[in-house]
């Protein structure tokens, strides 16, 4: 899984990101480039167009959901994982409900922790320290390109 979440686990509001952190977007691009990205319909619809050099797998309950050519549509997280099985490192990219389901099956979380709290309508589930071990923590201070302090954290399932 890959996510940017605030201290209060906020990840979005009105189907939009709450902040713009240049280094976080670069990290997302670098890590997901060339991989399958699994997401819910609302997350997919938040993009102006499919992201380049990634295979999009969209989970929706809607029948006959229309997507651009090359986008895979499935009805469950299990089907999304199955559709991504040729990729040794697919990424689950949201939203909130998909993250909740994926927390049960994922083996790694790439988290950008934004060191502030925000009003939101979508949240990342709590990370249970008895299940997940933090293996990397790189801090970044606020600067001219970043309005907030943030950290890149990696968690591996114990």
Automatic annotation (TrEMBL):
Catalytic activity: (6S)-5,6,7,8-tetrahydrofolate + NADP(+) = 7,8-dihydrofolate + NADPH + H(+)
Enzyme category, top tier: oxidoreductase
Pathway linked to the protein: Cofactor biosynthesis; tetrahydrofolate biosynthesis; 5,6,7,8-tetrahydrofolate from 7,8-dihydrofolate: step 1/1
Tree of life domain: Bacteria
Cellular component aspect of the GO annotation: cytosol
Annotated source species: Flavivirga aquatica
Pfam families: DHFR_1 (PF00186)
Molecular functions per Gene Ontology: dihydrofolate reductase activity; kinase activity; NADP+ binding
InterPro entries per record: DHFR, DHFR-like_dom_sf, DHFR_dom
PROSITE patterns, sorted: DHFR_2 (PS51330)
Described purpose of this protein according to its UniProt entry: Key enzyme in folate metabolism. Catalyzes an essential reaction for de novo glycine and purine synthesis, and for DNA precursor synthesis.
EC number(s) given by UniProt: 1.5.1.3
Keyword Protein transport among record annotations: no
Keyword flag NADP: yes
Keyword entries, A-Z: Kinase, NADP, One-carbon metabolism, Oxidoreductase, Transferase
PANTHER family xrefs: DIHYDROFOLATE REDUCTASE
Gene3D superfamilies (UniProt xref): Dihydrofolate Reductase, subunit A
Residues covered by the DHFR domain: 1-157
Sequence similarity: Belongs to the dihydrofolate reductase family.
Lineage: Bacteria, Pseudomonadati, Bacteroidota, Flavobacteriia, Flavobacteriales
Official protein name in the record: Dihydrofolate reductase
A GO biological-process term: folic acid metabolic process
């Amino acid at each position: 899984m890959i996510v940017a979440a605030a201290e209060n686990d906020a990840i979005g509001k009105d189907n939009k990101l709450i902040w713009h952190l240049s280094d976080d977007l670069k990290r997302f691009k670098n890590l997901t480039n060339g991989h399958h990205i699994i997401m819910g319909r609302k997350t997919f619809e938040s993009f102006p167009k499919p992201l380049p050099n990634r295979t999009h797998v969209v989970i929706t309950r809607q029948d006959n959901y229309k997507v651009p050519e090359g986008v895979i549509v499935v009805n469950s997280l299990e089907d999304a994982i199955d559709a991504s099985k040729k990729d040794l490192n697919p990424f689950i990219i949201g939203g909130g409900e998909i993250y909740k389901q994926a927390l049960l099956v994922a083996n790694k979380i790439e988290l950008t922790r934004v060191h502030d709290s925000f009003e939101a309508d979508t949240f990342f589930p709590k990370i249970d320290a008895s299940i997940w071990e933090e293996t990397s923590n790189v801090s970044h201070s606020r600067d001219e390109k970043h309005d907030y302090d943030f950290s890149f954290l990696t968690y591996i399932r114990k």
